[in-house]
Amino acid sequence: MYGDLNLANEIERYLKGEMTVAERKQFDSLREEDADLDHKVVEQEQFMNKLTAVANRRKLKAQLNEFHSELNVAEIKNAVKPEEVKIIQLFRKYKANIAVAASVAILTVFGTLFITNPGKQNSTYSALRRDMESIKRSQNALIRNINSNKSHTRMPAAPGTFGGTSFVLSSDGFLITNYHVINGADSIYIQNEKGDAFKVKTVYSDPAYDLAVLKIEDPAFNSFGSLPYTFKKSKSDLGEEVFTLGFPRDEMVYGKGYLSSATGFGGDTIAYQVSIPANPGNSGGPLVDSKGNVVGVISGKQTLTEGATFAVRSQSILKFINSIPQDSLKSKITVNKKNALSGLSRTQQIKKLQDYVYMVKVYN
Predict the structure, then answer these.
(1) Which residues contact residue 159 at a Cβ distance below 8 angstroms, ignoring those fewer than 6 apart?
(2) Same-domain check for residues 155 and 72
(3) What pLDDT is stored for residue 132 in this prediction?
(4) Same domain, 107 and 193
(5) What interhelical angle do 21-33 and 35-70 show, nearest 10?
(6) Distance between CA atoms of 64 and 61, rounded to whole angstroms?
(7) What pLDDT shows up at residue 99?
(8) Residue ending a domain, choose from 60, 87, 122
(9) Domain ends where: 69, 98, 122?
(10) DSSP annotation of 194
(11) Which parts pass through the membrane (predicted)?
(12) Could you tell me if 88 and 230 lie in one domain?
């Protein structure tokens, strides 16, 4: 729609508030539809903020120099006497200039700290990958019911380096999780509540979406059968009740809450914010609405805000799946279109859903 130059100009007009109401509404719609455009807007906004910060810093330095030049250092040195009265008189004479100069100096120091350490702005976002090595447990507690497993896969005795959650995308062995869960993995295994374990490989991933598709490599695997859930194609509404299943521990954990914001961390338009408590290990778990539709994938949380969890939207998941090159897959991923969870009680929904949610164990 825009050339590179025109797009840059339009983004600048958008950020400076120079667009009309109609233009801004249209541009907001484009941001929601185009993740690349949204990322460019965020990058441009950060760049403009840095320029403003640098300009403010220079202005503060100029003010400091100006106030400093008003101080007569030689007079101060000559006037300084050991007598208390002289010191008090001197302070009273110059206290206004000294106070202003000190204030500007303090502001300059803090301004420098904020400018030279921009990474702190992202320190409140925490990805929910679980550090398995930090959890000291017995082998029997980590690997449950493997001897009764129907597959031929034998999981390593070690607990793994990292862990998370995944859930089934299609009946022919494809699953989805977060990119940050499997990033850097040498080998990956999945295991469900029943103890069914499989070795999987990453067939496609995209850090921009923070999503990855896994494929079961076990020759004994046939099919997951009919999936009971679908992926919601439309947006969810604020206040809508949602729940998730995941593995922040070695047993599946259920959490419920509601959709609290239409955007994710920092206004990210590919994600939602939900009021569900989440912990390391929840990453990659399904976010499901009351009708049994998958509306997102849990990805992270805001560490300084209670109950602020983020999930990649189902619309973004579908875009991600459709963007996978055909040469990355032996067969096309076909998501389920029939919902078998609608109308069921929450307990019944969980019973049907839990067989399709797997713990992810990453080894590297």
Answers:
(1) 132, 133, 135, 137, 139, 142, 361
(2) no
(3) 54
(4) no
(5) 120
(6) 5
(7) 58
(8) 122
(9) 122
(10) T
(11) 96-115
(12) no
* 116 & 203 share domain: no
Question: 92 and 138 in one domain?
Answer: no
Give bridge partners of residue 255 from the DSSP assignment. Answer: 244
Predicted confidence at residue 141, as pLDDT, reads: 42
- Residue 160 — φ and ψ, nearest 5°? 100, 165
Looking at the structure, tell me whether residues 301 and 175 fall in a common domain. Answer: yes
Q: What is the pLDDT of residues 326-357, one digit of tens each?
A: 888 877 888 898 999 999 999 999 999 999 99
- Amino acid code (one letter) for 134: S
Do residues 92 and 155 share a domain?
Answer: no
Structural domain containing residue 98: 34-122
Q: What is the DSSP letter of 285?
A: -
What pLDDT is stored for residue 49 in this prediction? 76
Distance from C-alpha of 173 to C-alpha of 156, rounded to nearest angstrom: 21
Place of tokens 């607990």: 159
Under 8 Å between Cβ of 199 and 218 = yes
* CA dist., res. 347 & res. 30, Å (int): 39
CB within 8 A of 264, min separation 6: which ones? 270, 271, 272, 273, 299, 310, 311, 312
Distance CA 303, CA 72 (A): 50
Domains: count for the chain: 2
Q: Dump the DSSP string for 35-90.
A: HHHHHHHHHHHHHHHHHHHHHHHHHHHHHHHHHHHHS-HHHHHHH--SSHHHHHHH
- Domain identity same for 338 and 277: yes
Which H or E run includes 169?
Answer: strand 162-170
Report if residue 19 sits inside a domain.
no
Closest among 41, 42, 45 to 7, alpha carbons compared: 41
Residue type, 234: S
